[in-house]
Amino acid sequence: MLHLSNYVRDQWVQAETSRVEISSALDGSIVATTGSDGLDFAAMLDHARTVGGPALRAMTFHERARLLKGLAEAIMARKEELYALAVHTGATRTDNWIDIEGGAGTLYAYASKGRRELPNARILIDGDTEVLSKRGGFIGQHVYTSLQGAAVHINAFNFPVWGMLEKLAPTLLAGVPAIVKPGTATAYVTEAAFRVMIETGQLPPGVLQLIVGGTGDLFDHLTGQDVVSFTGSAHTAAKLQNHPAIAREGVRFVAERDSLNAAILGPDATPDSPEFALFVKEVAREMTVKAGQKCTAIRRALVPAVLIDDVQAALTAALSKVVVGDPAREGVTMGALVGLSQLADVRSKVALLSREARIVHGDAAPVAGTDERGAFIAPVLLRADDPDRAELLHEVEAFGPVATLMPYRDVAHAAAIANRGKGSLALSIVTNSSEAATELLLGLGSFHGRIHILNRDCARESTGHGSPLPVLVHGGPGRAGGGEEMGGIRGVKHYMQRTALQGSPDMLSAVTGTWLTGASRREGEVHPFRLRFGELPIGYTKKTAARTITLEDIEHFAHFTGDTFYAHMDEEAAKASPIFGGRVAHGYLILSFAAGLFVDPPPGPVLANYGLESLRFIKPVKPGDSIQVALTAREKTAKTPEMGEVRWNVAVTNQDNELVATYDLLTMNAV
């Protein structure tokens, strides 16, 4: 039996009294004891803010990304320890793969996005520069900086590793320390994974702390710089969100609550269509993975009224093949609920749902051949032929392998039924009709955080209805909590403050470490392509000589490339255009000539030109006009010890100093 410890101010601490026993989902034996009595929660928050926060904020986004990668590698290196422990949660190996390796995968994903999409800096620029004055001497720029508080993560029991890591990944990347509170029923798995991360020695002091019991008076000490991120029931979320300190201090509260998710079989389906089979497979899988203990699991299966008997028969056949029992036993495909209290709750909820629907497969009785001390239950499928008159079916969630089959008349009716759930984390539309998918999206999009449109074309590669992905938002409106987690870099910004800066272009460029529109350009005798990454200052500029573009240039380019668009080759047609007023140079001719003006040909520190972004053609260039280029080092981001990315602003002007084209050029430069 394990005696779980809290991790407080960089020390492992066990509760002084009132330890709670945690039972195995398989046989009721005591797996661990846990508790948090005697902890100084105010001191924990202070330690996070004054020790962990400054250490993280001193690191750049790239350094934090490398930290995430190191933690992911540690989890993967010791995953078998976690698998061995997680069997007591009642989950199968596949279920625990989603939790353990899926959690590590989330860390890897954020580590990658942090290196690829964020600067090697501590300030994140948000959007374009806003010019606030006529002469351009006063500008505005939005930026993100790290909050100077702590993130309090309240996690659910169903994913003890992934649930922790999907919150930690964006939090740490944002530069904010965290205090983790796992769900008690599976806290022993969370504590083990937490130990793995601490034992890497990679985490600065104060960055992570762990509470394996109640949170005591923790919330009383929250401030406006702190963030609470919660996963769990709507009842608990409401209780926490209404805490006086949350309202008084304006504490950010991110909620991801259990919801009545739905799946809709499109009106185009027939019993022999691929989409029919995909729908049945998806519903059956969502009912049985983690024994239905997923916040995204399908609870309501909506089908065309003419197909409800066929779908019921197919689902019943699929669920009849499910083997419930100890996951260690060969042939078992679904394990137990997390514990006896959860089993009792699911049984009571099935009884409630049975008032408005009839059970057509399974029941809530003990499962033959399983340990009676375990939390085993067979899949239960209900059917409600009149979902419009139902109330409980759209309000009550049985958090287990339970779903209700419902008929709909048309697409509008299907959307209306789905929306009766008052907001969900995930919804699946299984259809091969783009028209039906579009109509459904317009009818129910605002009620659902993620919509999975499944058909024969994407089925092979689809991750499925209930799979939250690091790059997409995980959350939903209304009943689902109104919050968002993950979502790539969007999730990072939940733990940062967006601030509008105002000032001179030179000042804001210096503050942000990025050359901004209107800032001074520094010219030197050395061509910028001759300067190594470390030698190149931000704002360093090469202004080129001018080149006149002739009619012969335009015609040669047209014939050489095959681009004989009328604006370049037909004077009369071009004159008739309200845009051109006569023949003009190709946009790509301008780009090519611009490159010819600023490129320094011999080998040097510039290793590769690998793209351009934000290209805009501002003003047509006509035969006889000349162009000139200002190439300015806008931003630098170290990528490896040997090389770094340089983002150049390219401004192409004509003989009247009018901007004709602008874009950002990306090069990889030797350090």
Shape: globular
The N- and C-terminal alpha carbons lie at a distance of 54 Å
Strand count, sense and closure of the main sheet? 7 strands, mixed
Mean pLDDT: 92
Strand content: 15-25%
CA radius of gyration is 30 Å
DSSP strand tally? 29
Oligomer: single chain
How many H/I helical runs?
A: 19
Task: Describe the protein in words.
The structure is a single chain. Helix 2 packs antiparallel against helix 5 (162-174) and helix 12 (411-419) packs parallel to helix 13. This protein starts with a strand and ends with a strand. Helices cover 32% and strands 24% of the residues. It is built from 19 helices and 29 strands. It is of the alpha/beta class. The longest helix has 25 residues, at 93-117.
Task: Give the helices and strands, then pairings.
Blueprint: E1 2-3, E2 6-8, E3 11-13, E4 20-23, E5 30-34, H1 41-57, H2 61-77, H3 79-86, H4 93-117, E6 124-131, E7 139-146, E8 151-154, H5 162-174, E9 178-181, H6 187-198, E10 208-210, E11 227-232, H7 234-241, H8 244-249, E12 252-257, E13 261-265, H9 274-288, E14 298-304, H10 308-320, H11 340-353, E15 358-361, E16 380-383, E17 402-408, H12 411-419, E18 427-430, H13 434-444, E19 451-454, E20 473-476, E21 483-486, H14 489-493, E22 496-503, H15 505-512, E23 522-523, E24 540-543, E25 547-548, H16 551-561, H17 566-569, H18 571-576, H19 587-598, E26 606-617, E27 626-638, E28 643-654, E29 659-670
Parallel strand pairs: 1-5, 8-9, 8-11, 9-10, 11-12, 13-14, 13-18, 14-17, 16-17, 18-19, 23-24
Antiparallel strand pairs: 2-3, 4-5, 6-7, 7-22, 15-16, 20-21, 24-27, 25-27, 26-29, 27-28, 28-29
